Amino acid sequence: MSSKFLWYIPNTVEPGHRGDDTTTGWGSVEFSTELARTAESHGWSGALLGTGWGRPDTFTVATALAARTTTFEPLIAVRPGYWQPAHLASAAATLDQLSRGRVLFNIVSGLDHVAAYGDTRTDPAQRYARTQEFLHLLRRLWTEENVTFSGEHFQVTDSTVSPRPYETGTRTHPTLYFGGASPAAERVSAAEADVQLFWGEPLEGIAERIGRLRTLSEQVDRRHAPLEFGLRITTLVRDTTEEAWRAAEEKVAAMAAADGAAWTGSHRTAVGQQRLYDLAARGEVLDTCLYTTPGTFGGGGAATTWLVGSPDDVATALENYRKLGITHFVLSDTPYKQETTRVGDQLLPLLRERSV
Q1: Alpha-carbon span 78 to 228, nearest angstrom
Q2: Is the pLDDT of residue 222 over 70?
Q3: Distance (Å, rounded) from C-alpha 62 to C-alpha 209?
Q4: pLDDT above 80: residue 162
Q5: 77 pairs with which residues across the strands?
Q6: What is the largest distance, in Å, between two alpha-carbon atoms of the chain?
Q7: pLDDT at 112
Q8: pLDDT reported for residue 266
Q9: Among 39, 69, 49, 75, residue whose Cα is nearest residue 340
Q10: For residue 280, is pLDDT > 90?
Q11: 179-182: which pairs have CB atoms within 8 A and are 24 or more residues apart?
Q12: Does the structure show a pLDDT above 90 at 110?
């Protein structure tokens, strides 16, 4: 199976995201388009677009970027509770037709400023149950006519989406990405997601989770094509190994100076994020070049652990993940525009050559 390589666009109006030093343009269609076109022209299939209340609406930004690019695939992060499934199914199918099948979705269950947009579900178990219904209903609305569904969280009666998503080859609807490390989250992925996204854990942890998810897929009687797997991680690439580690240490020193103190583990966080924070206790560098220290000085999510090294170092590390079954890679580093070019030009050719 061929691999897909995506970048990341933070989708924010505030400068300084993860240390990016660009001070103007954030939130404008011109700047976002520049980032998307840079990704498109340097080998990336597309990019994940960040989401959050108080930031530009992700679907609207994705629509603008799809209209201003040719091959760029927006991976649109959306939250059940912000969207009703029938509303998203219709909007997504329309954008998918207009872009000739370039739409991807990352379904996010984690808490946001839920009260600000009227979400009433805060209990994790309820949120995952709702996400499973959301994914199930999206698929049905995209592929069936006259859909009637009555669940705990969503209901539709005699619902037919028009137009349908763009069909080509075996593709009948946009790919549905999903992340989460708790038992409840993994059951959602096993039953209804197309791609389970992992953050940057060591190889043994990823291998264990892939095995568990494959077993779960059988236990929940999965009705879809086999679950695929993806990695969302920061990749700090320089011409040489020495340059890369020097840059990584400089970045962490700046994070430490800004943060003032190491993270102590005192705040409550999600299961997947906690797994990343716990890695620092096992060592600063795990596997060949997985750097855990950023998470102790404010790095979160995909910025908690970094793959650091020369293009060959990082390509080898990512190839090791691919051998476990990872076929979707969502990479990033800052400054975003500069690193879109550098990582695209230096790393992607090696990855594509090795994945043939």
Answers
A1: 19
A2: yes
A3: 31
A4: yes
A5: 106
A6: 62
A7: 85
A8: 34
A9: 39
A10: no
A11: 179/106, 179/108, 179/232, 179/272, 180/109, 180/128, 180/270, 180/271, 180/272, 181/209, 181/270, 181/271, 181/272, 181/275, 182/124, 182/128, 182/270, 182/271, 182/272
A12: no
Tens digit of each residue's pLDDT (9 = 90 or more) over 239-269: 999 999 999 999 999 888 886 444 333 344 7
Give the predicted TM-score (pTM) of the model.
0.94
List, as one string, the DSSP characters of 248-288: HHHHHHHHHHHH-S---S-S---HHHHHHHHHGGG-SEETT
Closest by alpha carbon to 80, among 130, 117, 155? Answer: 130
pLDDT of residue 356: 60
Asked if residue 45 lies in contact with residue 2, where contact means CB atoms within 8 angstroms, the answer is: no
The residues near 154 (Cβ < 8 Å, ≥ 6 apart) are: 84, 85, 130, 133, 134, 137
Is the pLDDT at 21 greater than 90? The verdict is no
Q: Which amino acid is residue 13, in one-letter code?
A: V
Asked if residues 157 and 139 have their Cβ atoms less than 8 Å apart, the reply is no
Alpha helices in the chain (DSSP H): 29-41, 58-67, 85-98, 124-143, 183-192, 203-219, 241-259, 271-279, 311-324, 336-346, 348-354
Backbone angles phi, psi at 118, to 5 degrees: 85, 15
Structure tokens at 310: 């020369």
Q: How many residues does the chain have?
A: 356
* Mean pLDDT along residues 164-189: 95
Region of poorest pLDDT, from 14-23, 82-91, 187-196: 14-23
Q: Which tokens go with 67?
A: 């209209």
Q: What is the DSSP string of 61-98?
A: HHHHHHHT-SS-EEEEEE-BTTB-HHHHHHHHHHHHHH
Bridging pattern class, strands 155-159 and 175-179: unpaired
d(CA 243, CA 323): 27
Residue 45 in tokens: 């299939």
